[in-house]
Amino acid sequence: MSNFNDNPYAAHDVNDDYNYQHSVPVQVPDYLIFSILMTLFCCQPLGIAAIVFSAMANGEKSAGNYQKAMNHAKNAKTCLMIGVIGGALLVLFILGLGILGAILDMQ
């Protein structure tokens, strides 16, 4: 026994097509500014990757492919997080080496 919704000839509401085509666009976050800043001040390889993913997200958002745009924005955010956390850990490591060197020089 088939369901009413499985029938391709079943009547449907014309407003469903209108609402689908004229729905409010999904908000896709734009990480382009953060990507540029990270490229300039922190980690260039991951910053460049984040810029590329941000630009791809903006392009897909303009084309109306919101799912792909969200995936690219998520990838840009991941690159940003890895770069910021990695950069912070590197700075802490270098500071730790500097402090350790200063302590050893005092002895």
Detail the topology: elements first, then pairings:
Elements: H1 14-21, H2 32-41, H3 44-63, H4 66-106
Please characterize this protein's 3D structure.
By secondary structure, the chain is mostly helical. It has one domain. Helix content is 74%, strand content 0%. It has four helices and no strands. Helix 2 packs antiparallel against helix 3 (44-63) and helix 3 packs antiparallel against helix 4 (66-106). The longest helix has 41 residues, at 66-106. The chain starts with 13 loop residues before the first helix and ends with a helix.
Features:
mainly alpha; single chain; about 0% strand; rod-shaped; about 110 residues
Short description:
With 107 residues, the chain is an all-alpha fold. The chain has one domain. The chain contains 4 helices and no strands.
Helix residue percentage = over 70%
Tally the structural domains.
1
Q: Give the topology string: H per helix, E per strand.
A: HHHH
> How many helical elements?
4
Shape by Cα distribution: rod-shaped
Structural class: mainly alpha
Mean of pLDDT = 84
Sheet with the most strands, sense and barrel status = none
Which percent band covers the strand fraction? under 5%
First CA to last CA: what distance? 87 Å
Tally of DSSP β-strands: 0
Spans of 5+ residues with little confidence (pLDDT < 50)? none
| Spatial extent as radius of gyration | 24 Å
